[in-house]
Amino acid sequence: MSSVSIQQLGVRMGAANILEQLDLSVHEGEFLVLLGPSGCGKSTLLHSIAGLIDVDAGSIHIGGRDVTWVDPKDRSIGMVFQSYALYPTMNVERNMSFGLRVAGMPRQEIARRVERASKMLQLDALLNRKPSQLSGGQRQRVAIGRALVREAQVFLFDEPLSNLDAKLRTELRRELKQLHQELGTTMIYVTHDQVEAMTLATRVAVMRGGRIQQIGAPGEVYARPANMFVAGFLGSPSMNFITGRLGEVTSRHVQFTAGAFEGSVPHEAFLGWPPLNAQAVLGVRPEHITLVPPGETHMPAQVTLVEPMGSHQVVWLDMQGQRVAASINSPQPPEVGDKVGVDMDLARACLFDPTSEERL
How far apart are the first and last CA of the chain? Predict the structure, then answer.
């Protein structure tokens, strides 16, 4: 396994800057997930590491070796694409070993590598089948196996589960995590699916517009987002944003007011010191909101929609003109039109600057 170091990377397509002065360090043996919406540059970054795209600036190092202009076949990488890209006339064994045979590797070594990968991916009984005789999940396992037999220093995954149904995605996601634990190899994984990112990653890099907005452990990025984009991209439903103003700052709290709502936000959730009465945005996760009977001590709201989710319910509220989602677990959830009170866990809230959208 090897580390990956990217410095001041720039990629242009025509007049557009897809990546600009991007820096990224991937530690040895970690599972880094590049997460972001379509068009944010995450696949471009992955393809640059693989050598499939020529870069316009910067450098890429794998295991301390500068591979910026090295051919893909010589970078010691294994890559799994969104498309299975299997040879339809070859069986599973020959699909997995094709690259090794072309490279002239001895037969015994090829057999050893295929046997090892097929056992890891539970493909032992399928080695003589052709792709047309396999399910979508089995085909993707073969594609992963084809990368594994290379015994590369770094494995790259470009949205490999996006073509599978929900059940298969869950199964393969679990198998990929177990595979990483077994191999301990450096893996870089691209996805727009936040569930994949949160469950697979040792660290998540959230991207937007060709730049990394925040990088950190999944729990850290979720609980302490660097800005409103990261806060809104992670979570389903995403973080609630309530516009208001800052009031008195004490030794431990800062007052936040939005209409009839007033609360004290602890300093742990408040990093900056804007002027008194400055505008701010309060960010609260749906699971940190509790619905209570309406009363003078709680923010009044009206239920506009209830979404049953099986294990819980998502209740959408109109809170004095601001739309708020609450995630609750109740045998008797409120109904549309009900008046409720809103209680927020402000110790786990965030405050943002409405202009820069950075967390205060």
Answer: 38
Output the CA torsion sign for 176, 181, 183, 187: positive
Is domain 4-233 classified as CATH 3.40.50.300? yes
Total Cβ atoms within 10 A of residue 279: 12
pTM of this prediction?
A: 0.90
**β-strand pairing of 16-26 with 203-208:** unpaired
Please report the sign of the dihedral spanned by the C-alpha atoms of residue 70, residue 191, residue 58, residue 6.
negative
Residues 6+ apart with CB under 8 A from 111: none
Task: Note the pLDDT tens digit of each residue in 200-254.
Answer: 999 999 999 999 999 999 999 999 999 999 999 998 899 999 999 888 877 778 8
**CATH superfamily, domain at 240-352:** Nucleic acid-binding proteins (2.40.50.140)
**Euclidean distance between CA atoms 83 and 158, whole angstroms:** 9
Decide if 144 contacts 80 (C-beta within 8 A).
yes
